[in-house]
Write a sequence for this structure.
């Protein structure tokens, strides 16, 4: 396997799949879907490299240490009375109200363990793409490419904290993943376990060692 290393440059937030507008906790690492999408986003010819991107075996593991910062943020939300009006008449002017929402932002401390590890079975067809990636998911979660190395296949635990991740569907086509296409996205969800050790817990942050 080839292990790619990316280092977040600031706080990041990878919204969990069960997130809502009022509550969005973070994953500890980007999903394989986000990594494949990032490869396509930085490619000069995404439709041509799609098959190479799709066929790779991709495993993402969290960093060795991570700090989770829960906080409340102020957002604009559609008034409940407006939902039915918008449903019946999409062109109607929507009315929003200011409300609070729960969010988690994560930070990776230190320099020696401040990396995401992304394992790929081969770089054939995508050799030039990994160093071009500078964000996963939303553009606010910026990362810096650190390098690559040969590594053994990681052994993932079968128990511990459970996270639901997603990847390209087995029958995914270019139209399914092209954000400019009207085709329904092809995604498959799976569960991955993490065994973090609670190191420090404060009122505004939680430090895990993995």
């Amino acid at each position: 396997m080839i292990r790619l290393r990316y280092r977040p440059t600031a706080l990041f937030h990878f919204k969990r799949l069960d997130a809502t507008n009022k509550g969005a906790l973070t994953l500890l690492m980007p999903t394989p879907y986000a990594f494949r999408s990032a490869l396509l986003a930085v490619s000069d010819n995404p439709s041509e490299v799609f098959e190479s991107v799709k066929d790779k075996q991709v495993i993402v593991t969290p960093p060795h240490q991570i700090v989770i910062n829960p906080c409340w943020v102020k957002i604009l939300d559609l008034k409940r009375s407006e939902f039915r009006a918008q449903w019946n008449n999409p062109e109607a002017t929507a009315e929003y109200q200011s409300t609070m929402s729960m969010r988690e932002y994560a930070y990776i401390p230190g320099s020696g363990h401040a990396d995401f590890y992304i394992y790929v079975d081969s770089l054939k067809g995508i050799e030039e793409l990994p160093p071009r990636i500078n964000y996963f998911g939303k553009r606010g979660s910026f990362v810096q490419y650190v390098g690559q190395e040969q590594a053994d296949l990681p052994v993932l635990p079968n128990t511990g904290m459970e996270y639901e991740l997603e990847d390209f569907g087995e029958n995914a086509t270019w139209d399914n993943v092209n954000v400019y296409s009207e085709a329904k996205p092809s995604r498959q969800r799976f569960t991955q376990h993490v065994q973090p050790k609670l190191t420090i817990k404060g009122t505004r942050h939680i430090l895990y060692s993995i």
Residues 34 and 41 are 10 Å apart (CA to CA). The first helix runs from residue 32 to 42.
